[in-house]
Write a structure and sequence with these properties.
The chain is of the alpha+beta class. It has seven helices and seven strands, in the order βαββαββααββααα. A three-stranded antiparallel sheet has the order 5-7-6. It is extended, with a radius of gyration of 23 Å.
Length: 187
């Protein structure tokens, strides 16, 4: 295997057959049982034992592939172009520029081009996932409030209750989103 890994993102397709996926699941199960040792045999017969972090990474890849999922491996220290960031986030390139302009995504100018740290792009993806989850939760609260309003309670009571139950961090994040929207509308 003389493959060279030099791309920012390495994509690995899932196993083609159910038989291959089952073999991968079996291998993961054996490794997780703590009875197996994972070694790499290098040219010349030298063996290298994988440390805990290397093993965790390989297990995550193997488990995802065993479940028929595509896997991407990416270094956090690499600078990305806006196009690469867009592909990683699953958005358009112009949307990445909007994230930069709004201050949601730190970026550096290299000549006339923008470059972004992979870790920053992944952090934005995580924030967007958490925000989507909180929106879903908020919609659930609204639906529950509407259902309970049929029983004599008002929807505003449910919103007030949700605000009271929110942590300080959730309240601050919500207020910051409102401030950002207000600033962007006033421009």
């Amino acid at each position: 295997m003389a493959a060279t890994l030099n791309r920012v993102v390495e994509e690995i397709a899932p196993p083609a057959s159910e038989e291959q996926r089952e073999a991968a699941r079996t291998a993961v199960s054996e490794i997780l049982s703590d009875t197996a040792r994972v070694m790499l045999r290098l040219p010349g017969g030298v063996e290298y034992r994988l440390d805990r972090d290397e093993l965790r990474a390989l297990l995550a890849i193997a488990l995802a592939r065993a479940n028929g999922q595509r896997v991407s491996v990416i270094s956090h220290d690499v600078m990305l172009s806006p196009q690469q960031a867009a592909e990683l986030l699953g958005v358009s390139r112009p949307m990445v520029y909007r994230f930069i302009e709004r201050g949601d995504l730190p970026a550096t100018r290299v000549g006339t081009h923008w470059r972004l740290q992979t870790a920053d792009v992944l952090a934005l993806a995580e924030r967007r996932t958490r925000l989507a989850d909180s929106v879903d939760t908020g919609l659930d609260h609204v639906a529950q409030s509407m259902a309970s309003s049929d029983q004599g309670t008002s929807a505003s009571d449910g919103a007030k209750e949700s605000w009271r139950a929110a942590t300080a961090e959730q309240k601050e994040a919500s207020l910051e989103r409102v401030r950002r929207r207000t600033r962007s509308r006033s421009r």
